[in-house]
Amino acid sequence: MLILVLNAGSSSLKFNLVNMEEEKTLAEGIAERIGLSEGFIRWTIQGEKGRLELDMANHKKALSTIMERLRESVLHEDQDVAAIGHRVVHGGPNFSASELITPAVLAEIEAASFYAPLHNPPAISGIHTAQELFPGVPQVAVFDTAFHHNMPEYAYTYGLPYELSERLGLRRYGFHGTSHQYVAERTALLIGKPFGEARIITCHLGNGSSITAVHNGRSVDTSMGLTPLEGVVMGTRSGSVDPGVITTLLEQEKMDGPALASLLNKRSGLLGISGVSSDCREIEEVMDHNPRARLAHEVLAYGVLKYIGSYAAAMNGVDAITFTAGIGENSAPLRSWVCQRLAFLGVELDETANHTRSKADRTISAPGSRVPVAVIPTNEELMIAREAKRVTTSTEACPVI
Ligand code: ADP
């Protein structure tokens, strides 16, 4: 069974073709600068890298070019894509699991654009494109928010007037759910505890970052909120700030909504603090002689430390701490900064293991560490493919027009 996974951004389209018998990625890549000039598609098909420069007016042009490449290489005539899984960032108030896309589901994803105006519209365009190019093939929406949907009410409620929150759906939704679920399941396997009985803190640290408390197989708290702006500092996003900062900027700097959104999403975080870069690797390259780069790194690491401490309290203990995504998987200095300050929990890092590069799931804590620390490479695409398979093989899948 072949599943195509699509992740559509405003000017990009990521794709993965997964063979579900072996859970193996046959082809993956990205089309970039869609709708802009000088677009290109990069791919790896069965280990071979390729690149094509072309102007792509829209997602349809990008996806049809990708499909031509796949049909010339891995996707032979007798093989069909059995289902398509779409990453959808925001599921809004009603989706607690992946959904077969019907007109009603699509309408609800459109309504959830209210909360994610930058993310959901491109996903909708990706869905429309795939429906046009693959008529009759079932399509599944996999939401970043779904894993967090059943957090306790006290964890997702903001201190705002209750009726207002209810009317507008203002609550903590959380994101990166497929990644947190995937790495938490892998961590449970690694430490030999049933997923349904473990307390795991997962730190997904990339350009966007979030931390999640996973208790007995469920997300019980997470650092991102109504939008992916809340939580620790990120590449260019501020993370949590005192809401009074917003009112001060509105009043004193006469900023309006779009100016504020741009400041908080694009000019803050590691970039804003360091003045150097939004990229953690570049920050680490200069932080020995650049105090603001050092400060940016410490603000991120300290934020991660505080979430781990509070989630250990939320779960009355912790059985494992896991790092994943670009920074979590690769930054030994950041993991070291955080874990050295977790001695009170019984965490003891093995610095040699911490500095050893590997693409495998692994522990980086010392054998005697009371709480194991793991590094697990995330694989959101595989999770989306699994969900697309589960939904289309367990439901009477009736494809949409
Ligand atoms: P996204 O959230 O866009 O998927 P990634 O998960 O790819 O992002 O993470 C990108 C981040 O990972 C960047 O800040 C990058 O600098 C960081 N990163 C990647 N490799 C390293 C490394 N070796 N050391 C430190 N940071 C790294």
Description:
With 401 residues, this protein is α/β, with parallel strands linked by helices. It is 39% helix and 20% strand. It contains 15 helices and 14 strands. It has helices spanning 59-72, 103-111, 120-133, 153-156, 162-168, 177-191, 243-252, 257-266, 269-274, 280-286, 291-314, 325-330, 332-340, 351-355, 380-394; strands at 2-8, 12-19, 24-32, 40-45, 48-53, 81-88, 99-100, 139-143, 199-205, 209-215, 218-222, 320-324, 362-363, 373-375. The protein has an eight-stranded mixed sheet, with helices on both faces. A six-stranded mixed sheet has the order 11-10-9-12-14-13, with helices on both faces. A hairpin with a 2-residue loop joins strand 4 (40-45) and strand 5. Helix 10 packs across helix 11 and helix 11 packs across helix 13 (332-340). The two termini are 22 Å apart. It binds adenosine-5'-diphosphate. Adenosine-5'-diphosphate is lined by residues 206-208, 235, 279-281, 284, 325-327, 330-331. The site of adenosine-5'-diphosphate (ADP) has 13 residues, from helix 10 and helix 12.
Sheet of most strands = 8 strands, mixed
Write the element-wise H/E pattern from the N-terminal end onward: EEEEEHEEHHEHHHEEEHHHHHEHHHEEH
Level of helix content? 25-40%
Ligands, deduplicated: adenosine-5'-diphosphate
What is the helix tally?
15
Over all CA atoms, what is the radius of gyration? Answer: 21 Å
Question: Biggest sheet: strands side by side, in what order?
Answer: 5-4-3-2-1-6-8-7
Give the tally of β-strands: 14
Query: What is the oligomer described by this structure?
Result: single chain
Q: Mean pLDDT across all residues, rounded?
A: 94
Which geometry do the CA atoms define? Answer: globular
Distance between the first and last residues' Cα: 22 Å
**Uncertain parts:** none
